[in-house]
Amino acid sequence: MGSLSIWHWLIFIFFIVVLGIPIARILNRIGYSKWWTIVYFIPFVNIVGIWILAYSHWPAVDRTRT
C-alpha cells in the first residue's frame, strides 16, 4: 500500500466540487449555514443529518410565513 496518487486527489476534489456546491446552495436557501455541507461527506452521519434536516424547522421558510 502506497500513498494516494494525484489521480485519487483529483477525483476527491471533483466529488467535493460536484456534490458540495449544490448542497451548500440548498442549505443556504433554506436558511442553514453552508458549513453543514461537511456532514454530507461523513458516512452514516449524513443519513442522520438528512433525517434531522427533513423534520426540523427551516429558518428561511419560517421567515416568509410571518
The percent range for helix content is 55-70%
Give a count of the beta strands, DSSP E runs of length 2 or more. 0
Judging from the principal axes of the Cα atoms, what is the shape?
elongated
The largest sheet, given as strand count, sense and whether it forms a barrel, is:
none
Average pLDDT for all residues: 86
Task: Give me the secondary-structure category.
Answer: mainly alpha
End-to-end separation in angstroms reads 58 Å
* Strand/helix succession: HHHH
Q: What share of the residues does DSSP label as strand, in percent?
A: under 5%
Low-confidence stretches: none
Round the Cα radius of gyration to an integer and report it: 15 Å
Number of helices: 4
Characterize the structure shown:
With 66 residues, this protein is mostly helical. It is 70% helix and 0% strand. The protein contains 4 helices and no strands. The longest helix is centred in the first third of the chain and has 24 residues. The termini are far apart. The mean pLDDT is 86.
Protein traits:
single chain; elongated
In short:
The chain is mainly α and 66 residues long. Helices cover 70% and strands 0% of the residues.
Record the SSE blueprint.
Elements: H1 6-29, H2 37-40, H3 45-55, H4 59-65
